[in-house]
Amino acid sequence: MTNSARLTNIYKIEDKVAIAVKAVSMLRDGAVIFLDGGTTCMELARIIPENLNLTCFTISLPVAMELSHKANINVISIGGQISKEAQIAIGANAIHHLSEIRFDYSFIGTGYVDATYGLTEFDWDIVQIKKAVIKASKKTVLLSISEKLNSQHRYKTCDINSINTMITELKPDNTLLKAFRNHDIKIL
C-alpha cells in the first residue's frame, strides 16, 4: 500500500503518527516488547528503526507482517482464535501463551479511556487479552488519540493506574489531560 493510499484510509492518521513517534523514543536495543493490534500500533510498527534490535511479540496479524520485513526484529506471533474484525488472536490459547512471557514494555491501544474508570472496550474477548498483556508487562504504555479520552464502554480492561505511560498526540500539559495527571502516570 502506498503512503498516500494509507493516509486516506486511516482515521486521524496524523495524530496516530505523532503518537507513534513519541512511542518509538521509548524503545531500547535488546528490549522484549509487546505490540498490540490497531492502527496506532501499526503506525508504531511502521516507524521502528531498521537498526534497532528487538524481540517483538504481537497478537496482530497486520503488525506481525509489517515487522517481519525488519531484519533486526525477532517477531513472535501469539496465536489463537482470530477476531475477524480486529485481526488479532483472542481466546484461551493466546491468554495462556501471554502468561508465560514477561515484556519490558507493552504498547497497547484501547477503545475508551477515562481517568476515573480506566480502560474499557466493547468486546469481552479483547478485554481478556489486554488483561493478560498488562499482567505480563513490566511497564504498560497506552497509545490513544485524544478523542478517546474521557469515554467509557461496557467492559473494563483495567484501572488507569495499571498504565505506566500514556501517549497521545497532545502536549503533556494540555488541559484535556488534567484528570490523568492526578494519577501516577507518565504522560508523553
Please characterize this protein's 3D structure:
The protein has 188 residues and is an alpha/beta fold. The chain has a single domain (11-187), classed as 3-Layer(aba) Sandwich (Rossmann fold). 31% of the residues lie in helices and 26% in strands. It contains seven helices and twelve strands. The chain has helices at residues 3-9, 13-24, 39-47, 61-67, 92-98, 124-135, 178-181; strands at residues 32-35, 54-58, 73-77, 81-83, 88-90, 103-108, 112-114, 118-121, 137-143, 155-158, 165-167, 186-187. The strands form three sheets. It has a seven-stranded parallel sheet with strand order 3-2-1-6-9-11-12, with helices on both faces. A three-stranded antiparallel sheet has the order 7-8-10, covered by helices on one side. A two-stranded antiparallel ribbon has the order 4-5. Helix 3 (39-47) links the parallel strand 1 and strand 2 (54-58). Helix 3 runs parallel beside helix 4. The radius of gyration is 15 Å and the shape is globular. The two termini are 30 Å apart. Mean pLDDT is 93; it is low at 1-7.
